[in-house]
């Protein structure tokens, strides 16, 4: 059995279909202290619950709102998206690995490997490192190949699709033109 960390409902559809089509046994694991604010967190849980009903699979839920945990983990990295996301990936994948060990799973993986908006290479490196340190296989698959298919399915099912990654900082980066400009400036500065 594989523990599949699920970051949100829409990103889970393709990986779930992938496992089901191949007869690979898995359990979903929802652990995302990075989703803010509270109403958005509840909405994403609801979207995954709808998908769970349609596709019929097991999910281990952590429905505790994690703003405080996230703030602690990413302390002082809030305005450094690269570093902040790295901490965020480590936080969620470490918890996934621990859950996989607790349940004596054969491997772990994450639906974050489906998103074209995440740092795929960094995610892979972090998961490989955790796999080595905790001595549990990491099931790697480039789920991005099914991105379009997954997106169309979510649209057809009329399920809520979030507009930003998750944390309150990513919400600002998505919707504030001022913050977007600042980030581009910072990026250019770091390249010179
Ligand atoms: S942008 Fe996404 S991956 Fe990065 S810290 Fe925020 S929630 Fe985590």
UniProtKB/TrEMBL annotation:
Pathway: tRNA modification; tRNA-queuosine biosynthesis. Keywords: 4Fe-4S, Disulfide bond, Iron, Iron-sulfur, Metal-binding, Oxidoreductase, Queuosine biosynthesis, Redox-active center, tRNA processing. Disulfide bonds join 165-167. InterPro entries: QueH (IPR003828). GO terms for biological process: tRNA queuosine(34) biosynthetic process. Its EC number is 1.17.99.6. The keyword 4Fe-4S applies. It is an enzyme of class 1 (oxidoreductase). GO terms for molecular function: 4 iron, 4 sulfur cluster binding; epoxyqueuosine reductase activity; metal ion binding. The keyword tRNA processing applies. [4Fe-4S] cluster binds at residues 7-8, 85, 88. It comes from the Bacteria. It catalyses: epoxyqueuosine(34) in tRNA + AH2 = queuosine(34) in tRNA + A + H2O. It holds the Pfam family QueH. Belongs to the QueH family. HAMAP family: QueH (MF_02089). Catalyzes the conversion of epoxyqueuosine (oQ) to queuosine (Q), which is a hypermodified base found in the wobble positions of tRNA(Asp), tRNA(Asn), tRNA(His) and tRNA(Tyr). This is Epoxyqueuosine reductase QueH.
């Amino acid at each position: 059995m594989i523990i599949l960390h699920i970051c949100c409902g829409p990103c889970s559809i393709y990986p779930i279909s992938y496992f089901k089509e191949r007869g690979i046994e898995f359990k979903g694991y929802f652990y995302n202290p990075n989703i803010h604010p509270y109403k958005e967190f509840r909405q994403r849980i609801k979207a995954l619950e709808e998908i769970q009903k349609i596709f019929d699979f097991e999910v281990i839920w952590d429905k505790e709102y994690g703003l405080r945990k996230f703030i602690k983990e990413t302390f002082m990295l809030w305005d450094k998206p690269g570093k902040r996301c790295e901490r965020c990936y480590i936080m969620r994948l470490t918890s996934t690995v621990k859950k996989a060990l607790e349940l004596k799973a054969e491997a772990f993986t994450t639906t974050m490997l489906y998103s074209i908006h995440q740092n795929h290479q960094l995610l892979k490196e972090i998961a490989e490192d955790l796999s080595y340190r905790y001595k549990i296989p990491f099931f790697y698959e480039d789920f991005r190949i099914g991105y379009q298919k997954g997106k169309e399915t979510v649209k057809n099912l009329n399920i809520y699709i979030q507009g930003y990654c998750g944390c309150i900082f990513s919400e600002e980066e998505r919707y504030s033109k001022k913050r977007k400009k600042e980030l581009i400036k910072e990026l250019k500065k770091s390249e010179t």
